[in-house]
């Protein structure tokens, strides 16, 4: 975007407000659909592996589109990008809302993804260029409020809609809001972009698409297909080769599509690693807890959504608070305290039983979200603060891409750990039960025994996966001790003539 935006006397609050409304709608839509998947399976007569493409396909499009956003932000104005992104999102929402066949619904979701992939990097870039470093934490905290507010109400709203209406109502609710946001953006956004002499390298786009897309698809499929599936290891291998080629090509170009040189700035590199590790740990709660409460405990979708609501609201409310604390104290203290809370609560989640109370789950999940709220935005902002302004589009695009990839890896890893542990424990329980059974058990007794073994084995698998997430969060905690308050590096374009280290930062 036009760097002149931060030369104005005050930040462009009108532009930021419009962008935040659009981003909120996109984030809300993502969380609405998860609870609706069983209803979609039944209505459109598709199996679990097929319906999962509504999530996997969305991630793939994000993985393909997000790396190109650095180029798009530099090339086009905020107005043009926002209207294009929201237009795509609105079109996809309308198509999905009227879909009576799964291919149409999937197409609508992927069109939505094309729009939403642009929104978050665009909004983050506007925030970075609109506020000075000393006020950026509070500004990014407000952004975090929007980012976390949508997941706070999404599951509960979705559960209520599914219990009272057809799943298509989830899209019909969002459609008029998306259209209004497009109209507001059309009339309010007036920024102009000076002509930029930058061209898109289409071979880089191809390599990026195959690289990130292959990794995302491979890791996303590993949980259901297994690591020994040719689809899994072949796509991961192809993706890794294409990604390595893509990185090598970007490092040789003067105007790369996605600039990997930003990793020479130590605080940005450290923040990226911590964010990736924490995203993997975060997926343990997002993935394993719903399985536990709905499959093992038989809690309804609405009650499951309500259980997650206090934690999500707490995380959203804390975001502006942690933003102000970040401006005052820096990122290290917040990250260390937050990761200690996350690690301890992850360990407590590894001790779930068949009798764990609903209240206990709410409190524990809320505490875990409280801990994570102190880490994600401060760590990310601290890393971005060290980059020269011309690298902001690349930094925000890289952050979002790495979160997509780490989310897919975390999901695949934890599902595999859970499944393998549950399977081995089920065999142990079955062998023990047959030894204790006096004589040949009746079919009724055998059915009850099988059900009990399945439930206990799945609980053991979930607990073990949470236990592994303790070590993942612990790794992020160790790395957090190396965080220093980032100082914006000098822009070394045309050579660093000052003799200063471009990656220099001051201690916290």
Automatic annotation (TrEMBL):
<feature type="transmembrane region" description="Helical">
    <location>
        <begin position="231"/>
        <end position="248"/>
    </location>
</feature>
<feature type="transmembrane region" description="Helical">
    <location>
        <begin position="53"/>
        <end position="73"/>
    </location>
</feature>
<feature type="transmembrane region" description="Helical">
    <location>
        <begin position="80"/>
        <end position="105"/>
    </location>
</feature>
<comment type="similarity">
    <text>Belongs to the major facilitator superfamily. EmrB family.</text>
</comment>
<feature type="transmembrane region" description="Helical">
    <location>
        <begin position="111"/>
        <end position="131"/>
    </location>
</feature>
<feature type="transmembrane region" description="Helical">
    <location>
        <begin position="464"/>
        <end position="483"/>
    </location>
</feature>
<feature type="transmembrane region" description="Helical">
    <location>
        <begin position="268"/>
        <end position="292"/>
    </location>
</feature>
<feature type="transmembrane region" description="Helical">
    <location>
        <begin position="200"/>
        <end position="219"/>
    </location>
</feature>
<dbReference type="Pfam" id="PF07690">
    <property type="entry name" value="MFS_1"/>
</dbReference>
<dbReference type="InterPro" id="IPR004638">
    <property type="entry name" value="EmrB-like"/>
</dbReference>
<keyword id="KW-1133">Transmembrane helix</keyword>
<dbReference type="InterPro" id="IPR011701">
    <property type="entry name" value="MFS"/>
</dbReference>
<keyword id="KW-1003">Cell membrane</keyword>
<protein>
    <submittedName>
        <fullName>EmrB/QacA subfamily drug resistance transporter</fullName>
    </submittedName>
</protein>
<feature type="transmembrane region" description="Helical">
    <location>
        <begin position="169"/>
        <end position="188"/>
    </location>
</feature>
<feature type="transmembrane region" description="Helical">
    <location>
        <begin position="138"/>
        <end position="157"/>
    </location>
</feature>
<keyword id="KW-0813">Transport</keyword>
<feature type="transmembrane region" description="Helical">
    <location>
        <begin position="12"/>
        <end position="33"/>
    </location>
</feature>
<dbReference type="InterPro" id="IPR020846">
    <property type="entry name" value="MFS_dom"/>
</dbReference>
<keyword id="KW-0472">Membrane</keyword>
<feature type="transmembrane region" description="Helical">
    <location>
        <begin position="362"/>
        <end position="380"/>
    </location>
</feature>
<feature type="transmembrane region" description="Helical">
    <location>
        <begin position="333"/>
        <end position="350"/>
    </location>
</feature>
<feature type="domain" description="Major facilitator superfamily (MFS) profile">
    <location>
        <begin position="15"/>
        <end position="488"/>
    </location>
</feature>
<dbReference type="InterPro" id="IPR036259">
    <property type="entry name" value="MFS_trans_sf"/>
</dbReference>
<keyword id="KW-0812">Transmembrane</keyword>
<feature type="transmembrane region" description="Helical">
    <location>
        <begin position="304"/>
        <end position="321"/>
    </location>
</feature>
